Structure formats: structure tokens, C-alpha cells
């Protein structure tokens, strides 16, 4: 991989957070991801208010499933088609416009609910918010290799993962208290403000678009580009490994969204956002420590083994959470799950970036987002059907088995992604 055209001469010798372009992207991500976690807790607070404290298992499962579904549907509907367009556009402009749109939509949610007292208009607004996110995510992933030196790409992705983890810890740490004491409406307002701060930070990135696809857009050409992106996913062992490991995390997330939240809240005498926030913080701390380890002592270990064994162990800790009714066990299990899934966020981004060419990154990242959200939607649908029938414990054990199975599949990718040992003379 050659040195990116946008990288400042001599930048590879400077720490990433002292490089203006990457630092601006990193701080913007940290702040907006912090707001995203508050947003998640705020919408759960809205669900709790609307369902009167999760008392009806059927309605609670449906509302929690809808919460997840409207965040996934935009990706399923638009992500495969957004990629070829993102490959043509100014990536920084895509990021800025997306955050501006998200800020305005999030601000409107409390107004919509106060006006209608209905869940449907709220979920429609959340749907539009995540439609803007469909443009943001592939643009961010595609721009990172263009603003950092190639030798620092893994470190850059690690730092971006750290931003996500720090945003998770801070957002969950503050968000639970904010929702329980100030209300979900105040929390959503704070989320909108973080998007505005992210816009200001992204505006500091000195990004010059590199030459990209200039062919005239036509239906036939559009379809050919999508097929080309799919072929890249199929022929690249690195991309296949990344999709397998990341898919396990998203699949597990769908089960936890529906069954896990109910399992945790029903074990409490008084359910509240702070319980979920505490576990989110524990998960984030575990992921932070594992991310540091991956980027230091674990840097030279085979990626397939790190990802595969991590998923298998994550399945084990999820079973521990499923069979317990104690909050301390939930916290320890969350910490260990976070540590085990952290490599999926650090390494898979680098695997996809290294396994694709500049001109096709946007569409491949869009296909990744499509596939992950499809898994999330399917897992939420399955959890919605299973939870009222077999209970939260059995549903979470099913999720754990799926995650461990994906880990075993990731280990099989080792034969294609790791070089064969050299025979001795």
C-alpha cells in the first residue's frame, strides 16, 4: 500500500493524534460516539416510558425489536447502492452533511413524541437519522487510509476503535444517570449537540479527494459496480475473515438488544437506564484493555486466531450472563465479553482496508454495513419470536452458540489468511 496523497510529508514519524487531519477525525468521532450511546439509552428510556416499565413481555419485545429494526432497515435498503456514490464524492463533505442532518433529526424526536404520543412517528424519525448514517460510515472508513500514512493504518484503526470504546464508557456512564434523573428528552438534546461538535471537528480535516471513478452513472454500470464489490468480498480471504468475525458481534448484538435488556431489567426490583449503562461501561472497559493489548503485545499474533478464539470465549461469557440473576455476574460477564470482541472492531477494519483497492473501498464498506445489519435484523426477529416462548435465558444461550460457531468458522479462515509454514531443508 503506497503512502496516501493526503498525508503530510514526514507524518509517519509523528504520533497520529499530533497529525491535524487524523486528530480532527478522531476527536469528532469520540464526541459523536459518546452522543450515540446517550441516544441509545434515551430511546430505551422512551421505550420504558411507553411500555410502563417493561411489564408486558410481548409489547416490550416488540418495542425493543422495533428500536433495533429502524436502525437497521436503512442499511439494508440503501447501503449496497450508496457505496458506488460514496466512491465518487468528496468524503469529508459526506461526513459533514451526514452529521448536520442527524443533529436536526435527533432534535426533532422529543417534539414528535410530545405532539403525537405515538411510537410510530418516533421510529420513522429514527429511521431517517440512520439513513444519514448509511452515508457516514463507509465514507469514514474509506477516508481513513487517505489521511494517514500506510505504516500507521493499524494504529489509526486502533485509535478509532479506542474512540468508540471511550465514547461507550463515557456515554453509558453519563447517559444512564441523565436518562433516569433528567429524562430521555434532555439526553437526546445532548446527542444532537455532539453531532454539531463533530461537524466543527471534521471541518478541520484538510482532505483533498484523490482521482476516483469518473464513468457516467447508468443502471447497467451501477449494477456492475455492485457485482464487482461482491466479487471483492468473495475473493479476498482478509475480507472474508473480517466479515465472519464482525458478523458474530452483530448477530449477538441483536439477541442482546431484545432478550438481554429484558433479562437484566427483570432481575431488578426497579428497572432503570443506569443498570444498562453500568454494563455498557463494563463492556467498554474490557474492550479498552483488549484493544491496548492487541495493538501492543498482540500485534504480531495471527489475526484469524485472535478473532476466532475471541468469539468462542465471548459465547462462554454470554452463557454465564444468561444463567445468572445477579448484577455482579452481569458486570463481570460484560467486561469479559467486551475484551473478547474488541479484536473484531480493531482488526476487521484493517483487514478490509488492506484487502481492497482505493476505488472500491466505498462499495465494499457499504456491503459490509449491509451484511452486518441484515444479521442484526434477523437475530432480532428470531429473539422476538423466541423470548416470549422460551424465556430470556434460553434465547441468550442460543445467541452464545451462534457466536461461538462463528468463532470456529473464523479459525477455518486461518488456512487462507496465514502463510503456509516453510519446509526445512
Tell me what the structure shows.
- With 425 residues, this protein is mainly alpha-helical.
- It is 79% helix and 0% strand.
- It has helices at residues 20-50, 57-86, 91-116, 119-147, 153-181, 184-202, 219-235, 237-266, 273-294, 303-322, 327-354, 361-412, 414-417.
- Helix 1 runs antiparallel to helix 6 and helix 8 (237-266) runs parallel beside helix 10.
- The longest helix is centred in the C-terminal third of the chain and has 52 residues, at 361-412.
- The radius of gyration is 21 Å and the shape is globular.
- The model is unreliable at 420-425 (pLDDT under 50).
Q: Overall mean pLDDT score?
A: 82
Order of helices and strands: HHHHHHHHHHHHH
Q: Which regions are unreliable across 5 or more consecutive residues at pLDDT < 50?
A: 420-425
What would you call the structural class?
A: mainly alpha
- Categorize the overall geometry: globular
Radius of gyration: 21 Å
Biggest pleated sheet: none
Question: What is the distance, rounded to the nearest whole angstrom, between the alpha carbons of the first and last residues?
Answer: 33 Å
What is the tally of helical segments? 13
Strand content: under 5%
Number of strands: 0
Helix share of residues?
over 70%
Task: Give a short summary of the structure.
The protein has 425 residues and is mostly helical. 79% of the residues lie in helices and 0% in strands.
Amino acid at each position: 500500500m503506497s503512502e496516501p496523497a493526503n498525508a503530510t510529508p514526514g507524518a509517519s514519524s509523528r504520533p497520529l493524534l499530533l497529525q491535524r487531519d487524523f486528530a480532527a477525525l478522531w476527536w469528532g468521532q469520540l464526541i459523536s460516539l459518546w452522543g450515540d450511546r446517550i441516544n441509545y439509552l434515551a430511546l430505551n428510556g422512551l421505550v420504558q416510558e411507553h411500555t410502563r416499565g417493561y411489564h408486558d413481555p410481548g409489547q416490550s419485545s416488540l418495542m425493543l425489536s422495533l428500536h433495533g429494526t429502524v436502525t437497521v432497515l436503512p442499511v439494508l435498503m440503501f447501503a449496497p447502492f450508496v457505496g458506488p456514490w460514496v466512491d465518487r464524492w468528496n468524503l469529508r463533505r459526506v461526513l459533514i452533511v451526514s452529521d448536520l442532518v442527524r443533529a436536526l433529526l435527533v432534535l426533532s424526536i422529543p417534539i414528535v413524541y410530545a405532539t403525537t404520543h405515538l411510537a410510530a412517528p418516533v421510529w420513522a424519525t429514527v429511521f431517517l437519522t440512520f439513513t444519514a448514517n448509511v452515508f457516514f460510515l463507509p465514507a469514514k472508513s474509506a477516508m481513513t487510509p487517505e489521511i494517514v500514512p500506510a505504516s500507521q493504518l493499524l494504529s489509526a484503526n486502533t485509535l478509532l476503535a479506542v474512540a468508540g470504546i471511550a465514547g461507550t464508557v463515557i456515554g453509558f456512564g453519563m447517559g444512564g444517570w441523565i436518562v433516569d434523573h433528567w429524562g430521555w428528552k434532555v439526553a437526546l438534546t445532548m446527542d444532537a449537540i455532539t453531532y454539531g461538535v463533530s461537524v466543527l471537528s471534521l471541518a478541520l480535516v484538510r482532505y483533498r479527494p484523490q482521482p476516483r471513478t469518473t464513468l457516467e452513472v447508468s443502471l447497467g454500470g451501477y449494477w456492475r459496480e455492485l457485482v464487482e464489490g461482491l466479487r471483492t468480498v468473495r475473493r479476498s480471504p482478509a475480507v472474508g475473515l473480517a466479515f465472519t468475525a464482525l458478523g458474530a458481534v452483530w448477530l449477538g448484538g441483536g439477541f442482546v438488544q431484545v432478550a438481554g435488556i429484558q433479562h437484566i431489567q427483570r432481575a431488578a426490583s426497579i428497572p432503570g437506564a443506569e443498570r444498562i449503562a453500568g454494563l455498557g461501561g463494563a463492556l467498554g472497559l474490557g474492550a479498552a484493555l483488549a484493544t491496548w493489548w492487541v495493538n501492543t503485545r498482540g500485534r504480531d499474533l495471527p489475526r484469524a486466531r485472535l478473532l476466532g478464539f475471541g468469539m468462542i470465549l465471548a459465547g462462554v461469557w454470554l452463557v454465564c450472563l444468561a444463567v445468572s440473576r445477579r448484577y455482579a455476574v452481569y458486570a463481570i460477564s460484560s467486561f469479559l465479553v467486551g475484551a473478547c470482541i474488541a479484536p473484531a472492531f480493531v482488526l476487521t477494519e484493517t483487514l478490509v482496508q488492506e484487502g481492497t483497492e482505493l476505488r472500491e473501498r466505498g462499495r465494499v464498506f457499504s456491503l459490509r454495513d449491509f451484511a452486518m445489519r441484515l444479521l442484526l435484523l434477523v437475530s432480532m426477529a428470531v429473539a422476538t419470536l423466541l423470548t416470549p416462548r422460551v424465556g430470556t435465558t434460553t434465547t441468550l444461550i442460543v445467541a452464545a452458540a451462534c457466536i461461538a460457531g462463528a468463532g470456529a468458522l473464523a479459525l477455518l479462515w486461518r488456512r487462507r489468511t496465514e502463510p503456509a509454514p516453510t519446509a526445512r531443508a
